[in-house]
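Protein 1 of 2
SEQ + STRUCT:
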Amino acid sequence: MALPRRLNWLTAAAAAAALIVAVVLTVADRRLAASQTVTLVAGRSEEAVPLDDPSAGVWKRSVPIEVPLSAQLMVPSMGGGAHTVTARALHDGQRLYIRLEWSDGTRNTTTDRILDFTDAAAIEYPVTAAAQVPSFCMGNPDAQVNIWQWKASWQANIERGVPADIEDVHPNMQVDLYPFEDEDVFYPPRAAGNVAARIDRTSPVDNLLASSFGTLTPAPDQIVQGTGEWRDGKWRVVFARDLTMTGDYAQFAEGQQANIAFAVWDGARQERDGMKSVSQFVTLDVSSEIAQAKAGAGFSRGEIGLFAVAGLVVALGLLLAGLLYLPRRQA
């Protein structure tokens, strides 16, 4: 009779440990695994969603999904690696808000030197809803995609007011006389009207269009806003745009679904252009349901840590009690 009783104690200890872990994961709003088919739900927020604070408490009302990213290996220049992006979404009936969060041990915010590359992130949608979803890598010739791209370097330039000058990058260098330094002809991208090279940007997010590899083009209307924040080895970036816009862009409405994909660039690994980590399309559901605060969402990381430690102590205590109790009962 000793074996069944011991098994009962072990089963009880394992069940208690599993219960504690489940409670801690629920409180921490974390998942052990996620399927590529999981839907990103944008609930309706009755609270304002601030663009200048990607860590605002309103995001605790959203439901996160974990989206796996892999290296872009379809066309040169290939690059990137395995990442996991945590995506959240909200809307207020007028605007759609998407927040991405991913781990990045270095904060790369400048491209002032030749070998400096910036951290960046992007969201992609099909321009028009169709039975056949376009390629998640830049769309198809007959199925255009709308891309929102944020760069840490663009945000840094906005925050400091002006792009870094060569004297800022190399403070001890000797500067010759450049009599025509303010003329656009010496800045070909600006002279050609490339919005990616403009110095008067007000948003660190570009609105782009593409219809296959090599066709990425700034859209005529720069209508997307956003803000990024690097903290504790993670980037959190919020993208925002009106649900509906005039023009050939992705359109959104309550009660409707769309496809959405993600990309991340790591500046420390010299990633740029096609050297990036990408996801396949997942489903975005613009819900009419009110986004509700999660139970326990106000707990701090320290409190969550205490829950985890308490759970482990309880589980180990049950296991130890079972192992010590049974031999005495047998005696």
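Protein 2 of 2
SEQ + STRUCT:
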Amino acid sequence: MKKQKEKTLKEIYSECWGFVKESKKQIYFAIGVFLFFAIIGFFVIPPKDMELVLIQKLKEIAEMFSGLGLMQTIWLIFTNNLFVCFLMLFLGVLFGIFPFLTLLSNGYIVGYVAQKAVSSDGVFILWKLIPHGIFELPAIFISAGLGFKLGTSLFNRREFLKNYKKAILSFFLIIFLLLFVAAVIEGVLVFVVG
């Protein structure tokens, strides 16, 4: 029996990107859910009680970063985003409920914050937010999309196991790297701009 040739890292990485491309429908769905709720967050004024909860949550997030050095800031951003993406991807198995709810809440919060920023500083303030999302949002959308793909293949054991293996590799070779770069950029911006 011939010994199977071991794959190089480049070949594995290429397969992971292939799997991401195969999952484009689910990734587009994830983008759609996020944008839909971001638009709602931007244009629909929340009830007063909900707005107070949102403001409190945003204050808590801001307080998490107070007094942190640059490396601590980067580490906090990275580990938080990594944990959320991990949960979205692997809890997508539960019929995609967790990634859907995460996209819903994050989309809404982004829309709400963008609306507040525009109303106080004008529309050009949104350009300052772009560096925060260039790498982070694709990682989030890929995680959610792959989570949806796992959820939809749950009842086909062979396909599910194949997707699960590819999802794990994609998480470490693509999502992990995107989130690391995002954390460095966002950490520097948070630390420098404040």
